[in-house]
Specification:
disordered N terminus; globular; alpha/beta; 11 helices
Amino acid sequence: MLLGGGDMKDTGIEIGLYTLADICPDPHTGNAVSASQRMKEIVEAAKLADEAGLDVFGVGEHHRLDYAVSSPAVVLASIAQVTKRIKLTSATTVLSTVDPVRLFEDFATLDLLSDGRAEIIAGRGAFIESFPLFGYNTNNYDALFSEHMDLLLKLNKNATVSWEGQFRPSLRDAEIAPRPLQQEIPIWTGVGGTPESAIRAGKLGTGIALAILGGDPIRFKPLVDLYRKAGIEAGHSEEKLKVGVTGHGFLAATTQEAKQQFYPYYSNYWYHVNKQRGGLTFRMSEAEFEQMTRPETALFVGSPQQIAEKIVQQHELFGHQRFMAQIDIGGLPFNKVAEGIELLATKVAPIVRKQTSK
């Protein structure tokens, strides 16, 4: 069992992890783990994170053979049985191509199984495989998201729902079961960088989870400001308007060690993601990686002290309530993921919680 940072969990921002369950060949060996092994490692990572005192664990959704998870609720239900207190969220649910009733019932079930720890981060998704798979048209990419979010929020508030929309059959006094243990399941909107998404999340009163994968994080400050302004103008309280920051990360004893160890995996990760999305398939150079990991950037690669400083600097910018790192990418072996979880929980979290509770 890892040493816990749990005694400090009630102060400062929430700190957690998320995984997209990519199945990449290890750049050193050329071998990839099986989907079965990947899922077992994800459950084990969540168990370690829970024991170490981290606050939240997220599981992403993809519908392709080079990712292990297409059903976050099922994987999170498995995680719920081996964890005690860590919050469990999708990261993210592709809301445009899932029936909101089915989604809500799955996460209400998860909420009951986990004693009230379920959350949903809903987004439009960076991949589009799920559209033809479930009979949706990519021409309705945004309209589907808006309609499904509208219905999801109604389902969250009401046990009996009447509703009409364009893309799914109407509901007439429909009983929505089961009801979650929580009064409402916390719902967040995943925001990649568009002002429209931030404003919409504010108007709806959902949290926002910002995907900040590189560059100078200050460029996201206008989005947070737009989100809070739209939310307050729509009548939502400041307490309800929660901001989360998500990003890629890797921790080692020193920043130089972290860079040396992580570069092959991070270069590998982007090579495969760009290939999957039909983009350029060149390999990231070490010089490019060095630029991406500078102290003022949003890539969380370094010593625990440097990672803590980056999180705190971003907190000064955004005043966010949650930070989540993706640390298991590009074929990284599980022993390295486990080391990262321990460092995040025992070395980074105490500093960040102390600094952000002031």
